Give the backbone structure.
Amino acid sequence: MNEFLLIVLAYLIGSIPTAVWVSKTFFNIDIREYGSGNAGATNTFRVLGSKWGSFVMLVDVLKGVLATSLYILLPYYLFNEWDRTNFMIGLGLAAVLGHIFPVWANFRGGKGVATLLGMAVAIQPMVAICCVGVFLIVLYLTRFVSLSSILAGVSFMIFILFIFNEKETLYRVFAVLVALMVVLTHQKNIGRILRGTESKVPILKHRDRRKQRRKEGI
């Protein structure tokens, strides 16, 4: 099995349309016809709730991890760190491309953030953990999955370039491209956030109820 076949396999793994299959199997709808029309975790949170949104996000992350880890099928990459990192980036990007343009769902997929996270988990786990931390903090404070994804993507670049100071040139370029891609693919979300029309995910409602009761008690 050569590199080209593994790249194709990574794309096919990334193409698994988790949100589409979940919405059709359990709700008899196509998630792409509701909410933002996007087949990703953010829209699943918005349309189907936190339970299924979390499930879709987890599976999409695992797609990135699995696809990026396909290098283990070629013994050469087990002993060559520089080449391994570059090949892992290629595998991960193929998976992300598959998520955005899935062959199994008429090439209409999600924005690739969760799959990018899975890719980061496979290549640089500590950076991934830090990005997850940023995502969860922003989500807790705002309940905007889109804003959480944007800031996690931008923080990925900051962690790679400045905090962990990754030396691999291709990885540094990749980190910058990730930040740009996340911002560009979330332009509509950014517009809705600025206009105050972006939907919040249905989590932490108990916190909002406590705040409302405190306000009413004043």
User: Anything to note?
Assistant: The chain is about 70% helix and 0% strand. The first helix runs from residue 3 to 14. Residues 113 and 214 are 36 Å apart (CA to CA).
